[in-house]
Amino acid sequence: MKHKFLEEIAIPEGITCSFSDKIFHCSKASKKLERKIYIPGVGIKIEDGKIVFSAKKGNKKTLACIKTWCAHIRNLFSGLEKEFVYKMEICNVHFPMTVKVEGSKFVVTNFLGEKENRVANILDNVEVKINGVNVEVKSIDLERAGQTAANIEKATLVRKRDRRVFQDGIFITSKPGVEA
């Protein structure tokens, strides 16, 4: 049977993968990740140490979806090898803010002198460490680490003030895979 689109990803050594009910599972030692994958009109199989995406019919959009999911799966494999780390920095010019981690919440107090605390969600399986003015967000799942870093950055967004004057906030200074 000839397919119009056929994309294969080799599974690295030591990683086991399975696909059932639209959920892709991969694990290495005690680390486990899963992702829900659904592309209409595309078959996904695991055979001979490879993940095979195949489509009988398709267009540019189908091919783009396949390539996107291939990139997501490669990120899962990278996460099983080593953790993704986002580095952030706390900047305060006007008021000294205090940050702390309370369970699954990142709490910022005294931001721009506000009486209310600003809170950011920390997603499951993500570790947040505060070391002085540096904040480090770690996880084996790239998407969860990135979303947690974005939640923290967005919690300290300055509204209705001149950004050139009020430069307070917590900002991402380093992302995984991007060399400064």
Structure commentary:
This protein is an alpha+beta fold and 180 residues long. It is 20% helix and 41% strand. It folds into 2 domains: 5-81, Alpha-Beta Complex (Outer Surface Protein A, domain 3); 84-174, Ribosomal protein L6 (Outer Surface Protein A, domain 3, Alpha-Beta Complex), CATH 3.90.930.12. The chain has helices at residues 60-81, 142-155, and strands spanning 5-10, 16-20, 23-28, 31-36, 43-47, 50-55, 84-91, 98-102, 105-109, 118-121, 127-131, 134-139, 169-174. The strands form 4 sheets. Strands 11-12-7-13 form a 4-stranded antiparallel sheet, covered by helices on one side. Strands 1-6-5 form a 3-stranded antiparallel sheet, with helices on one face. It has a 3-stranded antiparallel sheet with strand order 2-3-4, with helices on one face. Strand 5 (43-47) and strand 6 form a beta hairpin. The termini are far apart. The model has no long low-confidence stretch (mean pLDDT 92).
Q: Quick recap of the structure?
A:
The chain has 2 helices and 13 strands; from the N terminus they run E-E-E-E-E-E-H-E-E-E-E-E-E-H-E.
